[in-house]
């Protein structure tokens, strides 16, 4: 069985710069880190590897320094890694990102199961995973919080549907996105760091993909554009009230009405 995990490098701080012309985040390798939700995806894949005869591949799209999170995935137990990188992919929205990743996944070979984290902390859309599945024309299930069973033909998963829990059997190959409650991610292993220090990372660029239409990638392939993005302004104002319980209760009620909370 072959498992592919989609991972992403995201800003490790809220202090990020924005390109005023494109509305795209300016990536900084110093402050970058693995997307936290992707740690749960890697842990899920590695646990399946420990139970079954599986190969775990990770793939990420980003600048050359995004190779660092592939090395981190190796330290958690991943077997192979692929970096999808090219200036033509820059500025991609969720649709163009999903399309490029689907092309990259097709390029690196066969897969039985694709695992993604629920979302990324720099986008919070939770759309890329399902869109990859649509491009690959395979079934997909989101919000997976538990895997009950997996065999050569299907996987049985438990989904968190907010107000209910649903159990579903999905035919392989398929894609799932996992919740943070599925497993506790392991820490990177120092032994694996030494063992995988020289492990190869496959590099895929635009010229390696089957579809070489530049209008399908990056800003060209993005139907949505960011008009304005900015960090929230901190509000440090405070008020000090004095009085008995009845007086303070009235002041609080008036304040809540003033702020239109009630």
Q: Care to describe what's here?
A:
With 262 residues, the chain is an alpha/beta fold. The protein has helices at 36-51, 67-76, 94-108, 128-136, 190-195, 245-258, and strands at 2-6, 9-11, 17-18, 25-26, 32-34, 55-61, 80-84, 113-117, 140-150, 154-160, 165-171, 174-178, 202-204. It has six helices and 13 strands. A nine-stranded mixed sheet has the order 11-10-9-12-8-1-6-7-13, with helices on both faces. The model has no long low-confidence stretch (mean pLDDT 90).
Short characterization:
27% of the residues lie in helices and 25% in strands. The chain has 262 residues and is of the alpha/beta class. The protein has a single domain (2-221), classed as HUPs (Rossmann fold).
CATH architecture descriptor text: 3-Layer(aba) Sandwich
Which residue ranges are poorly predicted, with pLDDT under 50 across at least 5 consecutive positions? Answer: none
**What's the CATH class label?**
Alpha Beta
- Main sheet, how many strands, which sense, barrel? 9 strands, mixed
Number of helices: 6
Write the element-wise H/E pattern from the N-terminal end onward.
EEEEEHEHEHEHEEEEHEH
Instruction: Indicate the radius of gyration in whole angstroms.
Output: 22 Å
Kindly identify the CATH topology.
Rossmann fold
Strand content: 15-25%
Average pLDDT level? 90
Shape: globular
Helix content: 25-40%
């Amino acid at each position: 069985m072959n498992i592919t995990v989609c991972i992403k490098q995201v800003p490790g701080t809220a202090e990020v710069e924005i390109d005023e012309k494109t509305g795209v985040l300016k990536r900084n390798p110093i402050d970058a880190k693995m997307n936290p939700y992707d740690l749960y995806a890697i842990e899920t894949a590695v646990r399946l590897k420990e139970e079954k005869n599986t190969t775990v591949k990770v793939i990420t799209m980003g600048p050359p320094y995004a190779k660092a999170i592939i090395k981190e995935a190796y330290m958690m137990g991943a077997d192979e890694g692929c970096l999808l990188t090219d200036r033509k992919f820059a500025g991609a929205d969720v649709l163009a990102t999903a399309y490029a990743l689907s092309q990259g996944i097709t390029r690196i070979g066969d897969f039985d199961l694709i695992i993604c984290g629920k979302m990324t902390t720099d986008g919070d859309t939770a759309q890329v995973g399902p869109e990859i599945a649509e491009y690959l024309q395979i079934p997909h299930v989101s919000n997976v919080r538990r895997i009950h069973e997996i065999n050569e033909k299907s996987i049985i998963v438990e989904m968190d549907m907010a107000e209910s829990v649903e159990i579903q059997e999905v035919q392989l190959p398929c894609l799932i996105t996992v919740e943070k409650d599925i497993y506790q991610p392991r820490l990177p292993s120092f032994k694996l760091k030494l063992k995988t220090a020289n492990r190869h990372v496959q590099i895929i660029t635009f010229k390696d993909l089957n579809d070489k239409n530049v209008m399908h990638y990056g800003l060209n392939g993005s139907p949505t554009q960011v008009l304005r993005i900015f960090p929230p302004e901190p509000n440090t104002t405070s008020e000090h009230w004095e009085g008995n319980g009845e007086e303070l209760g009235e002041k609080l009620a008036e304040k809540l009405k003033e702020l239109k909370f009630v």
